[in-house]
Each structure stands twice: as C-alpha cells, then as structure tokens.
Amino acid sequence: MNGGSVGMDFLYQVRRFADLDPVHIDGFIFKLHYWFTSTAIFSASLISFAKQYFGDPIECIFDAKHGAEIKAVDAYCWLHSTTNLDTGLMRKLNTLPKIRNPCQGYPMADHDIDTLYYQWVPFFLFFQALIFRLPWNLWRHLEGGKMAEFGLEAKRHLIPEQTSESLAHQYAHFFNGILHHNNIYFWQYVFCESLNVFIVFGMIQLTDKFLNGRFIDYGRRVWEFYWSSESYRADRMNPMCSLFPTVTSCQFPSGALTGNLNVDHAMCVLSLNIINDKIFLIEWFWFITLAFMSLLASFCTFLIIICPRFRRFLIRMKLRSFGAQDVPLINQLLTRCYVGDWFILNLLAKNTTAYMFRRIIKSLTEIIKEQRISKTATISMENLEVKNGV
What are the domain boundaries of the chain? Predict the structure, then answer.
C-alpha cells in the first residue's frame, strides 16, 4: 500500500465520519461534541494507528551478547512494555556535551512504571470518538425527523417573491398545527445535551485512569514546565516525557532453550510517543475548554426553561428588521409559545435564511391575528344568541 493511497483512504474515512446532516437539529455546543471533538479524535486515532501498525513504533539498540535478534527484541519490548531509563544512565547522558537528553532531569521512583498502555492508544482514541457521538445518535433517533418535515426549501437564497410567500405560509401553518405539542421534544433534547456534559467530565476521568492517573493535571504540568527557567527545568523531568517517554529501557530474556536464562538490556526509541504526547496534551486543553463551554450552554438552557422573557429576547435578536408596529404581535406570538414551541422556532431559524424566517414569523402573526378576530366574532355571535334567546 503506497503512501498516496493511504492518505486518500485516511481523508475518505475522516470525511465519512465528519459528514453533517443538512438539517440542523441541535446547537453549536452540541456540534462541538459530536462533530468537531469526535472527528478530531477519530483523525488522531487513524494517525496513531497508521504509525503503530504501518510504521516502526519502537526501535531498540543493545549489545547482542547472547545471540538475540534485533527484530525479536523490538517485538518483545513492544508487546511486554518498557520502563524509564535508569537514573544513573540518564545522569551520564546529561554529562556528554553533544548528547542532549530531551526529557531533562531524572524520573522519580513513582514514574518508573511499565508502558504497556502505549499499544492501546489508537483503540482508546477510537473509543473516545464513538462515545462523543452517542448523545447525537440518541438525539437523532428521538428527534424522528421532525425538522426534516419542514423541508430545506427555505434555506435557498434565491427564491421568487411569490414562492417565498407561499413557502412562508406553508411553514407557518405546519408550525401552528403542532403548537403546544413540542415540550417532550424539547426535554428529550435537554437530556441529550446533559449527556454531553456528563460524557466530557467522565472522559477526563476515564483518560486519567487509562494513563495511570497522570492526565488530570497533565496540561498544567506541561505549561508550568515550559514556562519555567532553564535552571528550573534542568533538574526536573519533562511531564510529556514522563507520560510518553521517547527513550526507554527494556529487559528481555534469552538463552532459555539451553537451560540458562540470560537477561539482556536494551535502550528503545519509541517514535510513536512524539505524536501521542501532543495528542493527549491537545486533548487536555480541549476537554477543559469543552467542559467549560458545555456548562455555560447548560446554564443558558436553564435560563431558557425558567425565563420566557429570555426566550423572547433570543427570537427577537433574529428579527431585528421588524418594525415597531409588529413588536406587539410578535410578543403575543412568543407569549403563546411553550418552551417546546420556542425550541422549534429556534431550530427553524437555523434551517432557513434570515429573510425567510422573518416571513414565516410574519405569517404566524397573521394567523394569530385571524384566529383572534375569529374568536372575537364567535364570542359576539354566542352573546347575541343568548340575548335573542332571553
């Protein structure tokens, strides 16, 4: 398989994974979870997978005293994990004038742990990508294509005047037909949005568990390390190397078939970790940012639920070109809407042009006006019949 075909296949898989539905059924923060975050992590998993299974994730050097083959050593050390270099060896390396230890400092005793989790990184990243898509898949199922029933014609910018008027009336009558029947729809969305918040915080904890408890403050430690002075860094281990060392030690047995067990030592270069350390560093900063934005979105949803005035304000922000004479009718329309009806209107604004959305709202106000006149006439007729009967 040549590099060109691998690259094309990589782009094709990412494109398939990242395809967006033309009908908008969610908000911006929701999309950050299932589209941006999930697609970015899926891309990272493909890169890590390609490097691990189509490249050379590990290369070891050693003094072959007992006849061990280098390929066997590479395979053994990769499958059975490696540990940090011995502190004494690192001190000697640091004394050589032309050999720079990229990790600086020396590993602490609690950092001298096995690195078996490296080979699971692409699979863990793929698992993360799938988990971040779960709330959207659930919401798409619960949504049931309600917004798709409105159609996509109102998203076109070049629509003849007569067609746009007819289309606005069509949308308005359809919305009026489902008025006051959308609260369950809205609460299903709120549940899926809350699931996003739970997942991002849960994923931080799960990733910390996967990386042996060294992810929770990973970004903060890296930030402090690189923003410190050279003298400060000289005696301290680089947090990126602590979590994903590029040079490690491996002990492997040889000579077992002769009845004598010999243990050889190798120094291994894990080139894959030059990618992994940056993937998880970016993840740390992004997860923190996404968690903050998700909490902010949840707070806005809370305001939408408890404050009808805030809901009216958000819709009026999309209708800035309406005249002052139309404001009372618009307020009357929005006052009649339950929170689920407001949610449908908000999604309609995302699935139509600004011009068409204003036309739809205007058609809705006309329908309300007609209904009010009809109701007034009906009441007058009933009163007249009562008087005549008396």
Answer: 3-371
